[in-house]
Amino acid sequence: MSQLSAGICRRLNEAPQEEIDQLASGHTVQLLSIKKVAPTSSSTTATDRFRIIISDGVHFVQAMLATQLNDLVANGDINKNTVVIIDKLACNFVQDKRLIIILDLHVVSRNEEKIGTPTAPPSTQDAPAPAVLEATSSFVTSPATSSSIGQAKPIQPQPRTGPSGRGGRSVYPIEGLSPYQNNWTIKARVTQKSDIRTWSNQRGEGKLFNVTLMDESGEIRGTGFNAVVDELYEKFEEGKVYYISKARVNLAKKKFSNLQNDYELSLEKNTEVEECLETTSVPMMKYNFVELSSLEKLERDNTCDVIGVIKEVGPLGEITSKATNRTIPKRDLTIVDMSQYSVRLTLWGKQAEQFAADDLPVVAFKGVKVGDFGGRTLSMVSSSIMTISPDIEEAHLLRGWYDGIGTEKNFQSHTSGSSGASFGGFNRNEMRHLSDVKESQLGMSDKAEFFSTRATIMHIKSENISYPACPTQGCNKKVVDLGSGWKCEKCDKTFERPEYRYIMSMAVADWSGQAWLQGFNEAGLAVFGKTADEVHEIKERNEAEYNALMAQASGVTFNFSCRAKQDTYNDQTRVRYGISRITSLDYHEEAKHLVNLLKSPWAQ
Amino acid sequence: MNEHISMRVNSARLSGNKGRTVRLPCKVLRLSDDIAIVEASDGGQVEIQRKNVDMTATYVEVIGNVVDASTIKAMATLPLDSEGELDMQLVNDVIELTFESRFDKLFPRYKDT
């Protein structure tokens, strides 16, 4: 039979606030009963709550089990008469009653008999009585069955003057907040504070801001509108801990938040916010990191936490929001992690502008949204939190790994370019061979389709290799030879000399078949290594040299990213393959990929 | 017809091929008139007996007869320099792959293997 911590129940029942915090852990008790409490009808989730009776062999007290421990009940780890050691508990005072919440425990033994004959603890005034058995007749003798204990409420009412030193404030866990109790105070850290946002719709306009508050028991979102913004926005600082009371507890609007809590706080004019200086008991960020390689399993629009090394920082760009017609700054980062995958992550607004990390730091992201643009991408949303070089174990591991071997590794990218957007990158994982391209009738439907392939140039149609183009930057329109000059219809300007640009038809082939690809200026530059002007000049000057140049370009292999689309030309509809990107082969790189392919399960 | 088979090997595979003609892609570590010490793609060192055989490049493929597990009598060499760098790890991967049974039909094997 296990030895219970006799006297703990009585202390829990009697001790004032400060003592409870210290009584938190290490005590052995027996769970006399576990009962599911019906969720309140307004709660939208089906989270069960369990009320438990804990006994120290001498007395019993009621407590609630924190929802994070629900699994222990569900898989039978804890049940009637299980002996456990409490690792962490909290106590909140509800009007005159105290409610103990067990936040963490571990099981010592199960299937024991009920130890001792616990009774309801004596009703007391403030001073905690010594932890000794007192057999006076004023005690309520406990009935045999513990279930009926569960029904009656053996918690003796406590006078509210117990906790001292903080103006009558007794701290609630965030988990315990509900709309039915108004006299609470929470002690929480601001893990995230949003910018002030203004809105205007048919009903009017206003401004608001959000904060995410976190304590050991959970997280909750708080929102303040209009006048409250002026009052409280400056008061809240990210990373600091505050006592908050007299805010309204409402049902959470899940659309605006991705936190787990059913409720959220409305910060009002009479909400009190006081900075707390002893912050040790409030935890820092809690993460649930996902490996980048398993991002594919997550559906679009889900949120997740990731941690990785920033391998690349994109330039600051801008995007115009179709909805609001405003330009929003954005910046792409590429992060990698130990699963050897890389993914793009987008920062927006001020964060994009202010991002300045010259080295390659480890960054942790909480609550980023998963997108499926070109495979998988990540995006910061208003409630996402980015922490550069966090002081957590995963960050140190990543740092060590990257500095050691990560810099040389080739990462598998999540940008697979197959989701129909005009993504022109070369995607090695989805390469097709030419007969496959033709058989799958890519481009035969009305939409343009994309593919990547590796092929060798067999023949270039040398009759029409380039055209005279308008030299104006950005305008590539064909210019007409007026004799006195070359005129561009679009720019309405005449030039002495045009700038030639490549327009070529090339027959390329691989082991499976052959196809005709159309290349533009970029393709020509890659194939010939000379500008179209130069090649045009060679053609005019010396035909033999021109032919030699054409021959030299044949037989060279390239990686192509192509766009297949149907074209109607003089009543004839054909699929045309345009080259959107052409790259020379880095044989070393390609060989490595081939070796990997051969070692992969596909090749076995 | 196929008497002149020479498979590419690394230092570990020399002992299993004594007396056979092999090709060894390697990096030249030390060169003297009669002997060269080279490093094979798996990192092992091999002695090459190289009377009259030219071995002046940094990376070289030695074609020769296996004397013992750490010596080859060279018959000819091919320079392999590619701008001074050759990824020996990649070379080793390829060598090991050629010996896999699933590729028996692709690569000629020695008569009695």
From TrEMBL, chain A:
What protein am I looking at?
Answer: Replication protein A subunit
Q: Which UniProt keywords apply?
A: DNA replication, DNA-binding, Metal-binding, Nucleus, Zinc, Zinc-finger
What processes does the entry annotate via GO biological process terms?
Answer: DNA recombination; DNA repair; DNA replication; telomere maintenance via telomerase
* Zinc-finger found in the keyword field: yes
Question: Cellular component GO terms, alphabetically?
Answer: chromosome, telomeric region; DNA replication factor A complex
Q: Give residue ranges for domain Replication protein A OB.
A: 292-388
- Originating species: Suillus discolor
User: Per the database record, which ranges form the OB domain?
Assistant: 184-268
Q: What compartments host this protein?
A: Nucleus
| Annotated NCBIfam families | rpa1
Fill in the subunit field for this protein. Component of the heterotrimeric canonical replication protein A complex (RPA).
Q: InterPro entries from the entry?
A: Euk_RPA1_DBD_C, NA-bd_OB-fold, NA-bd_OB_tRNA, Rep_factor-A_C, Rep_factor-A_N, REPA_OB_2, Rfa1
Pinpoint the Replication factor-A protein 1 N-terminal domain residues. 26-109
Biological role stated in the UniProt entry: As part of the replication protein A (RPA/RP-A), a single-stranded DNA-binding heterotrimeric complex, may play an essential role in DNA replication, recombination and repair. Binds and stabilizes single-stranded DNA intermediates, preventing complementary DNA reannealing and recruiting different proteins involved in DNA metabolism.
**What Pfam families would the database entry show?**
Rep-A_N (PF04057), Rep_fac-A_C (PF08646), REPA_OB_2 (PF16900), tRNA_anti-codon (PF01336)
- Say where the protein is mainly found: nucleus
Q: Where are the annotated segments for Disordered?
A: 142-174
Enumerate the GO terms in the molecular function aspect.
DNA binding; zinc ion binding
TrEMBL record, chain B:
This protein's GO CC annotations: DNA replication factor A complex; site of double-strand break
Nucleus as a keyword?
yes
Q: Which GO terms describe its molecular function?
A: damaged DNA binding; single-stranded DNA binding
Give GO terms for biological process.
base-excision repair; DNA replication; double-strand break repair via homologous recombination; mismatch repair; nucleotide-excision repair
Q: Specify the protein name.
A: Replication factor A protein 3
Which organism does this record belong to?
A: Suillus discolor
UniProt lists the family membership as follows: Belongs to the replication factor A protein 3 family.
Localization, per the record, is:
Nucleus
**Principal localization?**
nucleus
Q: Which InterPro entries match?
A: NA-bd_OB-fold, Rfa2
Keyword field: Nucleus
Keyword field contains Calcium: no
Q: Which Gene3D superfamilies match?
A: Nucleic acid-binding proteins
